[in-house]
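ok trying again, last paste got cut off:
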Amino acid sequence: MIGLGSMGMGIAHSLRRAGFDVVGCDANRVTVERFVREGGQGAPDPASAAANVDVLICVVVNAAQTEAVLFGENGVAASMPEGAVFISSATMDPAASLRLASRLEAGGRLYLDAPISGGAARAADGTLTVLASGARAAFVKARPALEAMAAKVHDLGSEVGLGSAFKMINQLLAGVHIAAAGEAIAFAAKQGLDLRKVYEVITGSAGNSWMFENRIPHVLEGDYAPRSAVDIFVKDLGIVQDMARQLRFPVPLAATALQVFLMASGAGMGRDDDASVARIYARLTGTTLPQEFVTDQS
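nice, full thing came through this time. structure:
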């Protein structure tokens, strides 16, 4: 397991509960030490973690970090056994997935393009959704691990990049929905409405969304400790913009949502929870939201 952040740690423990021997590796040594204390095994670098494994799952932020895990100093590509499968779960442009897969597969290893969705809570209880594509041999090798970490594994075909393309559709919708939820709750606050009653009414009405239901409690509690950070959607909606521009396809709602996340990031909230978009609307309009607190991330 490469990457023991909020998602990766949950996946690692889900795999352990399913009976797998799991070796964890992360750039943060404190995180690795925590995983070892909780019953896992630790490795000092990706190459060491990858030795003698059948399946390697990589949950990092983006394509650049995935490439560094694979081919950088102490990368896994040279130490993975031939025939082992690399499960790439970072959100990235489909073209980047295809490029990385071609390099890895040239050395006799397998690559599965398998972004994940569901958040840290579902990672921890093994009920993620996986959007996967790749060669049949990669699926066969990866299937037991995927089923241990996910409630739903979508087999999207044999072409690497399809999983990433599907994930970008999800991220377009997720980003727009979070921005809309933040706008709505701040608008309600500006009118002096009871925000908890707004939450109760909207979650039982047609205007509800999964993101409204999941993120607005953070606003109600004034809790912006990051479950998923603002800068994740700066990245992901930026990828959507790049893909759309290449296809000459207009995405005005995604473009507007990106600007909202950029405002939040530019205001110093990049590492805070993505529900912070509500704070931007509040600050722009002099609106009062519930008392804020943010976990120290130093």
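cool. The longest strand covers residues 128-134. Confidence is low (pLDDT under 50) at residues 294-298.
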